[in-house]
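ARCHIVE CARD
Drawer: 12
Card no.: 0347
Subject: one protein chain, sequence and derived structure
Cross-reference: see card 0346
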Amino acid sequence: MKKFLIYLAAFSVLFLIYDRLFLFFIYASPSKESDKRLELVLNGKINKDIIVMGSSSGARDIIASQLEKETKQTVYNLSYPGSNIEFHEFLLRSLLTFNSTPKMVILTLDGPNEVLPDSMLTFRLDRLYPLIKYDYINKELIDRNEKNAILSKLFVLHKMTKANFDLRQKKFTALDTVFSDGSMPISFQKENVNWNEKLEDTIYQLQKESKVKIKCLQKIVTVCKQHNIKLLLVFPPNFREITPMFEKRMLQIAGKNSWFYEYDASNKIYTNKDYYFDLNHLKRNGAVIFTHEIADYLSKQNSLQTSNLQAGKSN
């Protein structure tokens, strides 16, 4: 029995030493990523006046550098294709934890999929896994039941995923290239798009909402209010029919303290497929036009606020 315990102790020590060797992969993983935006957030490098958030429509349809030039305010795009409202809430929370508070958050809403439980939009865990060297990220994974708190403290291997073992340098693709302003505009059009395709259901069904996702949107609204951040909800261009009831529901949740902007449907450009990558996303030429619309809207809102403030002082 004594010999067994000695062997067991020796094995445990050797395993712990072996386990610690994998720290190399954990600390090397972040440097191999092509999209470094989340790590910039964690390191307090995203201190901007305006932050753009959303999924692919936010990434493709709004060009942060152009918005910065036209509004004369610093702007950065933290939109991630395929991400859901839970991920956007996590990003905002992370941004405020490590960076200065922005003056405004622009949140793009893609449509009913934004708050449906079975949507293709997900919490982008793939953006967190390469950054598990950060305790903040590891805690988030534990809170989301992706990792066990005790095992994460004891074993390096438990923290790791398959992604951490891939130390090849990641490269941008033609579709997913992140520019220096965080935006991801596309200069080409997707092949074989059925431009006559219609949405299967343009009626918004309240009973299908995900309570978790609705709660995350409410958290975003609340956090922005608590930190005196102006929240602008944006409904970007779509080549297909819109869902008015969805927009009405989002405005109801956001409340009267938020700003709202829906693209100018009277502009014939938005019915011209030459300005679209596919049915749901603009090409760069369309993004330039839409970004200008938002800049113009912000300018008018700011002018209105200034006029109201001056009128209040004169009274």
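Annotation on reverse: The chain has a mean pLDDT of 87. The radius of gyration is 23 Å.
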